[in-house]
Amino acid sequence: MKDGYRLPDELARHTPGGTFAPEDLRDVCKKAGEELGGEDAAEARFRSAAAMVALWRGLDLPAWEAPYVLRDARLGYINGYDMALVSGGMPTEVTDRAAEARWGEDWPKRLEAARKRAGKPREGEGRT
Prior knowledge:
By secondary structure, the chain is mainly α. It has helices at residues 9-12, 22-42, 49-55, 66-86, 92-103, 107-118, and strands at 5-6, 19-20.
């Protein structure tokens, strides 16, 4: 067993330090994925699961860890992306483009559902 693992560059820039102990790897990947997702949302770019897996090419993860590490990074990415969409911190045009990149043609309904889950009113609406 290795003493530590390095994250792919795209995720590593969202974390302090260079390598992580195996027991910390999944949590670090989830947090880095959240930041990467939020960053991509601001650029209205959504990475597919295949693109996330491609980030890990060439890294030496043990077979019993790799699926979980990748899953946690992906879940973090989706969570961070969705949080950015519903936060109200991006201009409406950027939010709309990012939501369309995330969900395709059905994006208005899905964005509204995400806002409801997050307890955020639709833009222009106040809480009652």
